Write a sequence for this structure.
């Protein structure tokens, strides 16, 4: 049996470990919990609140109405008010359903997405686990587990609409994971790493060094990924699991109060995670910061204050870019009509899947024949020097990068001009409504 | 991979957590009568085992486990449950004798395995030395191993997957021969 | 003796593998729903996988040249892939069975019995 002294050291080591290098279990667990409570929980709730507010604002403006504008400035506190309402609502559980599973389902849907945040790169050092060798794959894995929550919810509701929603979700999710993975693989092949932070750091240095502009195949894979991520996330127009015109609200039909809100947190966090992957792999998550960070960490005299500043700036840029992706997802929700389930599966199996395969093959060949010259012109290579350009096909790679960059910038400019013009249009319509022309009899 | 360090209490706590999760959900699978609950228990068992892989330093394997097992195979199983659900109300109650035999075999096997393990561990057969920590497994090593040393099984598996895909599609497409011939 | 509890070794993983194996076996033996049996098989495969990976980490992690040996992990991946293939074929067989007998009760599969 244990002696008292032995038990004493055991508990001491359990709590405090062996000094600061190897802290004890209890201290480590408490530390982990504090990180989660102080950083991730507020982040998720604020993210959900802002996204729901943004979604309703976007919907409002697209339908020529103001959207929420009563609670707080610009209606920003609307989500808070809705949250308070959700907390106070009665938690209804269907009598005939599987009550335990019904209660469990929201957490099964929410937990994996929450865990996926662990691998999201907010900054070069601002990430939970810097050395995740396969961070991107881990995020993808978490997203693929989320669907189980939806299926359990639909099944345990004992409601035919819910079950239909769950079955649709199951077959949609399982199918779309393949083009999703294939298109990500194209980007990963170009980046040469699965570590999300490394991926971001090596894109820094200019517009043409963004992952998306690396080759025509990555450029196309970006769009394949976007469509597949919408479907895998059951975002409109692929929201067949909860299509309100046919299935009431699909798997959400029987839910109310906080459990319902948990599904929404899961959805918006998943949107952020998906957008974050897109930003990290294709859209240069840290901007020029990545370049400065590489320099500062190589500099022996670099100061930690500089690192902190760089990380905060990188986090801002990253969240901004992921937010831009979320904004486009919201636009699409209020623009496109919902396809039928057979059309959804057709798009997956007969369009996106072959496209993904072809892109993968093309990128592999591209990697074989056209070398990648990253970094900043005049530092890593001289774009005006004939010898530098002719070395190993740099000119081809660089030319394609610049051309793709022009195309990308052109697309963004076109969208901005289009949106701006329609905003002006809407304003003039409102003005005309406010001051009706005199009716000439 | 600090977490996988042997003797690091955090790793031990996580191990016991995941192991408890896996064991309890495995028992849930064995004891539950409801097929959907069985599938949910399997989900938790798979997730806990993925956590154990992570503790062992194989994060790629953990991700594969989640994507392929929890996100693919399990959903296929749940899909099968839903498609064959007309009999869900009819309880599949096993016979008492079957349960006794199964539990007996299980208990004997478990005892045998654990006694054997204890004997082996006591005699130092395992030489319990975990790998040094700088030796965690980068993904590219795994890829090189797959396309190097293990190329032949890799190719065989890929052919097998093709055959399975065609076969499953063919089997699932076969028409129903009349409406339920025998009950 | 106390630290033996906190120090996780190969034996801990093997015991867990044994528990999963036995649970899977009991599931296979007691369930009459064909899909339940399939779930039991998945548990057994997981038990095997835990053993493979744990052995890879603890005993056979170094190859002869001194590099990292990955046999356990590679085979664990093969097992996972084969489990997926097995589940697909088994489910399509069950669906066919269900189409013909409107049941997935394995007791009813006795047409070929003499």
């Amino acid at each position: 049996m244990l002696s008292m002294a032995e038990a004493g050291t055991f508990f001491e080591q359990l709590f405090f470990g062996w000094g600061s290098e190897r802290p004890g279990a209890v201290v480590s667990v408490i530390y982990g919990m504090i990180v989660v409570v102080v950083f991730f929980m507020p982040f998720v709730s604020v993210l959900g609140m802002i996204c729901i507010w943004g979604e309703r604002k976007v919907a409002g403006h697209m339908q020529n109405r103001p959207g929420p504008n009563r609670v707080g400035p610009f209606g920003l506190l609307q989500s808070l008010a809705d949250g308070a309402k959700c907390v106070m609502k009665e938690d209804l559980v269907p009598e005939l359903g599987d009550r335990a599973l019904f209660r469990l389902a929201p957490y099964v849907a929410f937990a994996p997405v929450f865990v996926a945040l662990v691998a999201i790169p907010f900054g070069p050092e601002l990430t939970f686990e810097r050395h995740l060798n396969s961070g991107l794959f881990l995020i993808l894995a978490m997203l693929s587990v989320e669907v189980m929550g939806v299926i359990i919810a639909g099944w345990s509701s004992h409601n035919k609409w819910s079950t239909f929603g769950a079955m649709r979700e199951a077959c949609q999710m399982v199918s779309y994971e393949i083009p999703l993975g294939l298109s990500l693989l194209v980007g990963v092949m170009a980046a040469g790493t699965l570590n999300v932070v490394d991926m971001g750091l090596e894109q820094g240095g200019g517009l043409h060094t963004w992952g998306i502009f690396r080759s025509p195949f990555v450029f196309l894979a970006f769009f394949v990924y976007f469509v597949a991520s919408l479907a895998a996330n059951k975002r409109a127009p692929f929201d067949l699991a909860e299509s309100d015109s046919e299935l009431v609200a699909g798997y959400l039909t029987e839910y109310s109060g906080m459990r319902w809100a948990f599904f929404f947190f899961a959805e918006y966090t998943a949107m952020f995670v998906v957008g974050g992957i897109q930003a990290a792999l294709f859209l240069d998550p840290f901007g020029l910061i990545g370049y400065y960070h590489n320099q500062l960490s190589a500099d022996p005299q670099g100061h930690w204050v500089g690192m902190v500043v760089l990380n905060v700036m990188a986090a801002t840029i990253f969240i901004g870019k992921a937010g831009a992706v979320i904004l486009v997802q919201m636009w699409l929700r209020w623009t496109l009509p919902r396809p039928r389930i057979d059309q959804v599966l057709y798009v997956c199996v007969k369009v996106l899947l072959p496209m993904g395969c072809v892109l993968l093959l093309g990128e592999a060949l591209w990697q074989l024949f056209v070398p990648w010259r990253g970094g900043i012109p005049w530092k890593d290579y001289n774009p005006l020097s004939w010898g530098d350009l002719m070395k190993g096909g740099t000119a081809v790679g660089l030319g394609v990068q610049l051309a793709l960059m022009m195309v990308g910038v052109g697309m963004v400019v076109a969208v901005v001009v289009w949106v701006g013009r329609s905003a002006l249009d809407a304003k003039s319509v409102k003005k005309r409504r406010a001051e009706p022309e005199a009716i000439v009899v | 991979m600090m977490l996988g360090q042997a003797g690091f209490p955090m790793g031990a706590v996580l191990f016991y957590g995941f192991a408890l999760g896996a064991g309890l959900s495995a028992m849930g699978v064995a004891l539950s009568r409801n097929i959907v609950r069985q599938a949910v228990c399997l989900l938790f068992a798979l997730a806990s085992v993925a956590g154990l892989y992570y503790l062992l330093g194989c994060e790629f394997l953990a991700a594969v486990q989640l994507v392929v097992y929890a996100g693919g195979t399990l959903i296929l199983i749940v899909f099968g449950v839903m498609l064959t659900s007309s009999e869900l109300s009819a309880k599949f109650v096993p016979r008492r004798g079957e349960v006794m035999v199964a539990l007996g075999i299980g208990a004997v096997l478990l005892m045998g395995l654990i006694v054997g393990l204890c004997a082996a561990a006591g005699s130092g057969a395992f030489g319990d030395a975990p790998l040094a920590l700088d030796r965690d497994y980068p993904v590219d090593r795994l890829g090189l191993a797959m396309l190097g040393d293990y190329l032949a099984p890799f190719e065989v598996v890929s052919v097998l997957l093709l055959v399975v895909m065609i076969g499953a599609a063919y089997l699932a497409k076969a028409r129903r021969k009349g409406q339920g011939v025998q009950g | 003796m106390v630290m033996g509890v906190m120090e996780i070794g190969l034996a801990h993983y093997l015991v867990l593998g044994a528990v999963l194996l036995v649970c899977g076996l009991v599931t296979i033996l007691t369930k009459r729903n064909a899909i339940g049996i399939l779930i039991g098989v998945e548990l057994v495969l997981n038990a095997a996988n835990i053993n493979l990976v744990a052995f890879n980490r603890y005993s056979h992690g170094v190859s002869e040249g001194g590099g990292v040996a990955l046999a356990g992990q590679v085979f664990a991946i093969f097992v996972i892939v084969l489990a997926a293939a097995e589940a697909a074929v088994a489910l399509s067989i069950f669906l066919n069975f269900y189409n013909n007998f409107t049941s997935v009760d394995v007791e009813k599969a006795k047409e070929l019995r003499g």
